[in-house]
Structure formats: C-alpha cells, structure tokens
Design brief:
The protein is of the alpha+beta class and 185 residues long. Helix content is 57%, strand content 16%. The chain is elongated.
C-alpha cells in the first residue's frame, strides 16, 4: 500500500472528529438560545428513554426563549422533569400544551466555565486526531519494515501526515474560536 492511501484512509476519520466536535459545541450554551441546547435531552416517557426531538416540536422564536410543543400532552410531565434535571440551568414553564424555557443572561463566571468546557472538548478532538496520526504512522512504519514503502517515502509520509494533522488542528482551533466568541458576546 502506498503511503498516500494510508493518509487518505484517515481523513474521513478526522472529518468525523470535526463533525462530532461541531455537534458537541452546538450543545454548549451561548448568549442566544438554540434548539440544539435541548433537542438531545433524554426524556423518560412510559418507561423508555427518548431524545426530546422525537417527542416534540422545538423552536426558538426569541434570542432568550425556547418553545417545546409536545406531540402528545402525556409527554409534558416527562419533558418538564428532564429539562429541570438537565445541565441547562433553568426551569421550564408549562403553559397549557407548550413548554417555555426562558434562558437567563449568562454570568461572567458561567461564561468562564463554558469556555473551560469548550477547551476540554477541543482538547478531546485534538487527542483523537493525534490517535489517528499515530495509527497512520504505525502503519507506514510497518509497511516500511516489510518493504512495501520505501525509506524515502516514509519521510515524505511523515511530512504529509503532519500537514494533514496541522490542517485538522487548525479547523478545531477555528471552530473553538468562533464558539468562544459566541459565548463571550
């Protein structure tokens, strides 16, 4: 196998890391409301667990408000309990057939906590990228030992692999900077 194929194989895995990071960061609260803050909250309903997005319509008509409209009135109690127990830091308000969530302004202390959480998630992404670099490099070295990859190509592979890693780390950094800006606004 040529070293370029090895590098080509890890790119989709690194793309998954970036996509996962973006999904995770969409759940981190900023100064504005977003349906992604609540859509994956797990609701215990009739002895089974469902993500909120499977039980209700979720919208964010105002910057500090989320409205949840359950498809069945019997879901309201379970949804209310799940939101109250979540890390959202707010209490839901039941208004007949809908549930309203009013998001309080972020305190400076809470913003710093969110930035810390953001940094941890970025570091996890970088760690996974390093893991894939290690996998690819190990494969390159093994194939160099068996003679499938020439010694010169081994060093080219190392340089090219580092370029790919740098490119993905830059994406992680850019995503994090954008989210940090939203948190601090």
């Amino acid at each position: 196998m040529e070293y370029k194929e090895i590098i080509k194989k890890i790119k989709p895995e690194m793309d998954k890391v970036i996509a996962f990071l973006e999904r995770e960061l969409s759940k981190v609260r900023t100064g504005r409301s977003s349906v992604s803050l609540v859509e994956d909250i797990v609701v215990d309903c009739f002895g089974q667990k469902f993500p909120l997005k499977q039980l209700a319509s979720i919208s964010s008509p105002e910057p500090k408000q989320i409205i949840i409209q359950p498809w069945d009135k019997s879901y309201i109690e379970g949804i209310e309990k799940a939101i109250s127990n979540s890390s959202l830091g707010t209490s839901p308000v039941v208004d007949k057939d809908i549930i309203r969530i009013f998001l309080p302004p972020l305190s400076d202390e809470y913003r710093r906590t969110l930035v810390r959480v953001l940094s941890e998630k970025q570091e996890e992404a970088r760690k996974t990228i390093r893991h894939w670099r290690g996998e690819a490099w190990e494969q390159v070295q093994n194939e160099t030992k068996t003679g499938e990859i020439r010694e010169d190509d081994k060093f080219r592979a190392k340089d090219e692999l580092q370029k790919v890693v740098d490119e993905y780390n830059k994406k992680v950094e850019e995503i994090g900077e954008k989210k940090e800006k939203e948190i601090l606004e």
